[in-house]
Amino acid sequence: MSEYNEFLQENRIKVNRYLNTVLWFFIITGPAIAAGVKGGIFHDISYTTCLSISVVVAFLSAVHLMLMKRIPSSLLTCLFALTALDILIVYMSYSHVSIHLTWFLVPFLSLLFCDKYIYFYAVILNYILMFITSYLTAPYYLSIRSDYDNIPAYLADVMSGFTIETIVMFASGLIIGKLTIGYFKSLFSQYTLIKEQEKAMQEKVGILDSMAEIYDNVNLIDFVNNTEMSLRDVEDGKHGIDMSTQTHTIMNQRIRNQVMPDQMEEFMTFTNIKTVRSRLSQKKLISADFIDIVSGWFRAQYITVDSTLDGIPNVVIFTTRNVDEEKRREEHLIRISMTDEMTRLFNRRCYDEDLREFRNSTLSDDFVLFSIDVNGLKTVNDTKGHAAGDELIKGAADCLVLSIGNKGKVYRTGGDEFMAVVHTDDPEGLRTEIKNKAAEWHGIYTEEITLSIGFAAHREKPDSSIDDLEHIADADMYAEKEKHYRERGIERRR
Question: Which one of 82, 203, 231, 436 is most buried, by most CB atoms within 10 A?
Answer without folding.
Answer: 82
